[in-house]
Amino acid sequence: MRFLHTSDWHLGRSFHRVGLLDAQAVFLDHLVATAREHDVDAVLVAGDVYDRAVPPLVAVELFDDVLHRLAEAGVPTVMISGNHDSARRLGVGAGLIERAGIHLRTDPEGCGTPVTLTDDHGDIAVYGLPYLEPALVRDQLRAPSGGHEAVLAAAMERVRSDLARRAPGTRSVVLAHAFVVGGEPSDSERDITVGGVAAVPAGVFGGVDYAALGHLHGCQTINERVRYSGSPLAYSFSEAGHRKTMWLVDLGPAGEVAAERIDCPVPRPVARIRGRLEELLADPALERHAASWVEATLTDPVRPADPMARLTARFPHTLSLVFAPERTDEDPLASYAQRLRDRDDHQIAEDFVAHVRGGAGPDERERAVLRGAFDEVRVATAVRDGEPSPAKGVSG
């Protein structure tokens, strides 16, 4: 059976205030054309269909249009909600839409109920695991603790339990939206850290033939059977080096996996350039970025005059200007920037406590309070965006 694995469409998103709706429409045209051209048996969409819980109407219309075209093409589609989506809103009408071959999986309660597809070699059970916010679904899934690994493991136990009741030789596919150990993040993914821990081991997906992942925006192979498709477009300058693709996955009669990357259309290349302003304006090697969206980092020790106007004269699509003056290691501003580099919100908060106390960092109890505060903010955000409240039968 042949699948087309994609994720992280983020319909309605912009890139540094530049609207991407036209580029997203071109991608969806490409998706439908690829499904037809390669005789795909099903499309798998591993979450973050929209960029926010309440998407703009034009994004909803784009989504509606692609669903109609996939249904008209007779291509079954299995789709889960991601951490950017409102599961409740995305799942409205799922029962009716399913009759057209569009299978929306947004309710954690349905983790163990697959979409069953069939080819010449038998059945394939396709399980959709929507993004599982630990504090909101822990009790529902009867997970022993509230972390990402615990709730995902509990969902996978339901998958394996259902699979064990099926005919021998039944193949299996799981869609999930999570941060799996070994994956490489970018700047455009929303943080899903809970209690200071975000990543889950790939082994949690043991026992299934293929795990189609979403959340990370770079196309990645965690192992032969666990892969991220990545986002179809660059959504941050940290993705300048990404090759945006979908996975074309062939699942053999014994569950063997063969996967090929299918390139996505590139509306405009994304580039990062760095150096002193005069060097950037004169370097002939940078001519290849004249038509790119550009982030320029200026390293001049003293801020030059009219840098953006001068840059856009050579690079008309410059969207971001960053100043990073060359400094010596003894410069206190340089050491502060180095301390913050690659540190998450929890670590920065702990550093702040140590700073105001003259070097004495938080103890274990205080660390737990800080982690709890960050988790409460994330849960409150989820509730605000339309997800079920922890007060309604779900502990925080």
Automatic annotation (TrEMBL):
Keywords: DNA recombination, DNA replication, Endonuclease, Exonuclease, Hydrolase, Nuclease. InterPro entries: Calcineurin-like_PHP, DNA_Repair-Maintenance_Comp, Metallo-depent_PP-like, Mre11_N, SbcD, SbcD_C. SUPFAM superfamilies: Metallo-dependent phosphatases (SSF56300). It holds the Pfam family SbcD_C. Residues 1-218 form the Calcineurin-like phosphoesterase domain. GO terms for molecular function: exonuclease activity. Coiled coil: none annotated. Residues 267-355 form the Nuclease SbcCD subunit D C-terminal domain. It comes from the Bacteria. The keyword Hydrolase applies. Belongs to the SbcD family. Heterodimer of SbcC and SbcD. NCBIfam families: sbcd (TIGR00619). SbcCD cleaves DNA hairpin structures. These structures can inhibit DNA replication and are intermediates in certain DNA recombination reactions. The complex acts as a 3'->5' double strand exonuclease that can open hairpins. It also has a 5' single-strand endonuclease activity. This is Nuclease SbcCD subunit D.
